[in-house]
């Protein structure tokens, strides 16, 4: 294979109760990238559309991840890379993760598929470190594996794919402000009380049980975050109003997508999700802040090939 075009999905990390441990992949929203093998032994980013990002391969995490993987594999080719961002960095929808996961997937194909998805996740986590200072796995593993994922352990890295109940829909409202993941991590408490920890891990258990049994009400009751959301929601204008609008219009639950500012809601059917979108939208329309909003199914596929030669 000499050339590959891939699609890498947007993702929702944390899913309320599972900070750094849970993620899901969205259908339809994501980045595309083209990787062309060259005979030059250099890596170049030749085109970037959709976001203002560096072309320097030591600054753009696509270049950073590609360089490390090429060196480790002793690759005997160079690369020309085109990046088409489908959503903005700093949105809470895993922009850096879509780039990092997509790069590892494409490189694996061009190298003859030497790596497992868990090994690719480890490489993609280096991209996350370059973006925000932490080797987080939730967005990148959701992008690579698709569906719902649980990071059962960071060391050694263990990713568990969870079932996706067929009627689940995601609504995502993205206020047009940028929150850097690094900044959103810096506001977090260094310690949590035992009481909060018990509530949180009980909800993670409830959510996972709900996914396995397609118990939508249990999923809804488990979408609670008593540790991260109370601190981070202060960074997101009108968070409570939008969350309440989602729940009052039938959503199972709602919370912060990743590090924010995107607010996500889960609903049991497309009809409910449409109603939830309408009410979240009309709540934000009164704020004077620009935003975008969409509904999505959960993608069970993750990063995929668009075409290859
Ligand atoms: N290819 C790339 N795609 C996205 N961001 C990149 C890329 N290369 C470098 N960056 C830098 O990474 C930072 C974005 O990372 P950050 O984690 O804050 O956003 P994010 O990935 O959209 O957040 P979240 O994971 O919450 O959705 C920005 O400073 C951006 O310039
Ligand atoms: N779990 C990470 C995701 C960042 O995209 C966080 O919430 O900081």
Automatic annotation (TrEMBL):
Residues 60-147 form the GHMP kinase N-terminal domain. ATP binds at residues 88-98. Pathway: Amino-acid biosynthesis; L-threonine biosynthesis; L-threonine from L-aspartate: step 4/5. GO terms for biological process: threonine biosynthetic process. It catalyses: L-homoserine + ATP = O-phospho-L-homoserine + ADP + H(+). InterPro entries: GHMP_kinase_C_dom, GHMP_kinase_C_sf, GHMP_kinase_N_dom, Homoserine_kinase, Ribosomal_Su5_D2-typ_SF, Ribsml_uS5_D2-typ_fold_subgr. Its main location: cytoplasm. The keyword Amino-acid biosynthesis applies. It comes from the Bacteria. Residues 208-286 form the GHMP kinase C-terminal domain. SUPFAM superfamilies: GHMP Kinase, C-terminal domain, Ribosomal protein S5 domain 2-like. Keywords: Amino-acid biosynthesis, ATP-binding, Cytoplasm, Kinase, Nucleotide-binding, Threonine biosynthesis, Transferase. GO terms for cellular component: cytoplasm. The keyword Amino-acid biosynthesis applies. One of its GO terms (molecular function) is ATP binding. Catalyzes the ATP-dependent phosphorylation of L-homoserine to L-homoserine phosphate. Belongs to the GHMP kinase family. Homoserine kinase subfamily. This is Homoserine kinase. The gene is thrB.
């Amino acid at each position: 294979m000499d050339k590959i075009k891939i699609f890498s999905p947007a993702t929702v990390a944390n899913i309320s109760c599972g900070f750094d441990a849970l993620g899901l992949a969205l259908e339809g929203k994501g980045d595309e990238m083209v990787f062309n093998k060259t005979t030059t032994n250099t890596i170049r980013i030749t085109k970037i559309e959709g976001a203002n990002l560096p072309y320097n391969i030591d600054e753009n995490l696509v270049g950073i991840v590609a360089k490390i993987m090429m060196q480790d594999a002793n690759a005997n080719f160079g690369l020309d890379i085109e990046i088409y961002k489908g959503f903005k960095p700093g949105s809470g929808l895993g922009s850096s993760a879509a780039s990092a996961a997509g790069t590892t997937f494409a490189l694996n194909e061009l190298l003859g598929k030497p790596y497992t998805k868990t090994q690719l996740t480890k490489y993609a986590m280096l991209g996350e470190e370059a973006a925000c200072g932490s080797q987080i796995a939730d967005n990148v593993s959701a992008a690579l594996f698709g569906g719902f994922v649980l990071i059962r352990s960071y060391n050694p890295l263990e990713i568990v794919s969870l079932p996706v109940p067929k009627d689940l829909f995601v609504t995502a409202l993205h206020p047009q402000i940028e929150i850097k993941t690094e900044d959103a991590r810096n506001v977090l408490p260094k310690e949590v009380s035992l009481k909060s920890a018990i509530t949180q891990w009980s909800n993670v258990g409830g959510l996972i049980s709900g996914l396995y049994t397609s118990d939508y009400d249990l999923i809804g009751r488990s979408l609670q975050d008593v540790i991260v959301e109370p601190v981070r929601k202060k960074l997101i204008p009108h968070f409570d109003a939008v969350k309440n609008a989602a729940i009052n219009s039938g959503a199972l639950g709602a919370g912060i997508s990743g590090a924010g500012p995107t607010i996500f809601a889960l609903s049991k059917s497309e009809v409910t999700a449409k109603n939830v979108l309408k009410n979240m939208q009309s709540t934000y329309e009164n704020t004077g802040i620009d935003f975008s909003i969409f509904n999505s199914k959960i993608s069970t596929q993750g990063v995929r090939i668009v075409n290859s030669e």
